[in-house]
Amino acid sequence: MRPLLFLVFFTTVISCSYRDLTENFPQPTVWDGDLFLSSQAAIDDFKDTYVGINGDLSIEGVTGDIVDLSPLKNIRFVSGDFIIQNTENIKDLSGLSGLESVGGQFFIYRNRALESFQGLDNLKSVQGMFFISLNAKLQTMQGLQAMEQLGDMLYVFKNASLADLDGLQSIKEVEGNLSFSGNVQLSDFCALQSVLQSTTVNVLTENNAFNPTSNQILQGFCSQ
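Structure for Receptor L-domain domain-containing protein, as requested:
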């Protein structure tokens, strides 16, 4: 009987210990479905045990109080579309440091304080269109240095303070065009030289401060 009692006791201890561990250290999970976050409170309530979104993720500044994305730091992928729009106070995307891939389209639109993409340093691929528009204070593409694959086009439209494209040098595969339009201070396209050397892609430019062709960029006539 003693060996049997010991076995029962040992099994109970192991079971309790495992339960304690899983309660104290929640296991990583994936959010199943679309997720809409419209306030800082909603972001703060998001459990940092989620490592991915199996659906679309939307961050929209409805209340105007979003300042911190760090509760989302463990998200490694979004399988659908990812939209960040109409925020008032986010200067960078440092809370998204875990993000590696977006399976759908990535829209970064009308974020009034956004100055750079710092925080997206681990983002390697966007399978849909990557759309960057009307971010009035965006000055640089720094933060996108890990980006290697675009499954559709990159469209950069009417970002009033954007002056260069430093940060896009690592792109190796693009299925669509690289399009830049209406960026009134954009005069330096030299970051695209390495992209044009490693992949066949058209660079389309219009109504920027400087509008070189793909061949001009390749030949070194890439800034003004």
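The chain has one domain: 29-218.
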